[in-house]
Specification:
Strand content: 5-15%
Oligomer: single chain
Distance between the termini: 26 Å
Mean pLDDT: 90
Helix content: 55-70%
Number of helices: 6
Order of helices and strands: HHHEHHHE
Shape: globular
Number of strands: 2
Low-confidence stretches: none
Strand order of the largest sheet: 1-2
Largest sheet: 2 strands, antiparallel
Structural class: mainly alpha
Length: about 140
């Protein structure tokens, strides 16, 4: 069940922040190690994929931009996302956006903006949503 879904504008803000963070980081690193513009594009693509796939898995559904905005990705049951879920959300959904020539992406924007649960095509594919709910912190030393 969807709890406190995050809407279009806050998600767009988090996406812009993530783009700035990844873009500037890639630019600085590639300048420091002397990667040319073609290599920089490849390097940027690899970093973006790894950032989008792995960071939410290891950081309770957050990326840096989402953390700053106070939102995170969760499964429909409210549990944390795993690697398979993020593959569906990022790679498979990206493939759907490409094969529909961007039409599914535009539909997804409208879904996030106007649906009550604020879930886009990528959320439907991966059975996820973006929420303001904080992760449940567990203490391994606490007795049950």
């Amino acid at each position: 069940m969807v709890q406190r879904p995050a809407g279009f504008w806050i998600r767009l803000g988090a996406l812009i922040l993530d783009g700035l963070i990844v873009g500037l980081s890639v630019l600085i690193v590639s300048l420091l190690i002397g990667i040319d513009s073609d290599g920089q594009s490849v390097f940027s693509g690899i970093v973006d994929i790894l950032y989008s796939l792995l960071l939410p898995v290891f950081w309770y559904g957050y990326t840096v931009g989402k953390r700053i905005c106070g939102i995170r990705i969760v499964k429909l049951d409210g549990s944390n996302v795993g690697f398979g879920t993020m593959l569906l959300r990022y790679i498979v959904a990206g493939f759907v956006y490409v094969i529909t020539l961007g039409i599914a992406y535009i539909v997804s924007i409208f879904m996030v903006a106007f649906r009550q649960d604020k879930r886009g095509v990528h959320d439907m594919i991966a059975k996820t949503y973006v929420t303001y709910e904080k992760p449940v912190e567990t203490n391994p030393y606490q007795e049950a």
